Amino acid sequence: MADLKVVVHGALGKMGQEVLNAVNITDGLVPVGGADFAASGDTVNIPNSNSEIPLTNDLSQVIGKADVVVDFTNAEGARNVMTVSAPAGVHCVIGSTGMSEKDLTLAQNLATDNGTSIIIAPNFAMGAVLMTHLVGLASKFFDYADLTEVHHEAKIDAPSGTAISIAQAAADGKKSLFEAPSAEKELINHTRGGDHAGVVIHSGRMPGRVAHHEMVFGALGQTLTIRHDSINRESFMPGVIMAIKESVTSKGLTIGLDKIMGL
To answer: In CATH, what number does 4-120+234-261 get?
Structure first.
């Protein structure tokens, strides 16, 4: 079987660089191009190798080389990837967050109309996906839930897409609102955090973190803590590789790595 040819959108970013390296060292996959809005040269080096591949700021210039495009940019970049790739018969693996329901509808239509696969996941760390699954199982036994997420200082959105998915999994599992008591006297505004179906969410941003999520359920006389930490960006790569390989055997829109993991 021929190697799967992969183009990375956002190739100059930290996640893009990790994806290039992971693809390059995985049997059966080969990086054939990169695209990045900040591209100024016409090649990009593959990390930890002496190889380089074509680079452009226009994805359409390298899409003809690809079987799969992997995107780690933002919602706008993801929309561009899907609208360029699907009509060209190229599958998409999307790790960008902040996508709207309208974006998901667009993805569904593009995948269906063009007979391609689009996989969108808010988190590719298998541990974080398992955490979300376990939260959904535990939630119906508790009435209180506080979720803390901490990421690096440059993360654009708050709370994280993964935190929203975890809170929604708790709400879906409980099938009713959690209790979210407010302080009688809040000395600093918003100290109690955000509220999603009664799950109170606290967001932190600081250097030294990659991704931290911690759910604490509370009930009379007890708490249950479910926590996951990504120590570095390598933690996302097994999930990304799994999605790349899955994309060429599936069709339509898949949301969440849990579907691929069989949870």
So the answer is: 3.40.50.720
**pLDDT tens track for 209-259:** 999 999 999 999 999 999 999 999 999 999 999 999 999 999 999 999 999
pLDDT confidence bin for 97, thresholds 50/70/90? confident
Other CB atoms closer than 10 Å to residue 111's CB: what's the count? 22
d(CA 235, CA 127): 9
| pLDDT digits 0-9 by tens, 169-185 | 999 999 999 999 999 99
The domains spanning 4-120+234-261 and 126-231 adopt the same CATH topology: no
What pLDDT score does 122 carry?
84
Known catalytic residues are 151, 155
Cα–Cα dist 221/142, whole Å: 11
Closest CA relative to residue 36, chosen from 90, 72, 82, 64: 72
- What ranges do the domains of the chain cover? 4-120+234-261, 126-231
Answering whether pTM is above 0.85, one says yes
126-231 belongs to which CATH class?
Answer: alpha beta
Closest listed residue to residue 20, CA positions, set 50, 42, 46? 46
Cα distances (Å, whole numbers) of residue 237 to 16, 241, 246: 11, 6, 14
Give the integer Cα–Cα distance in Å for 96 and 119: 11
Q: What is the DSSP letter of 227?
A: E
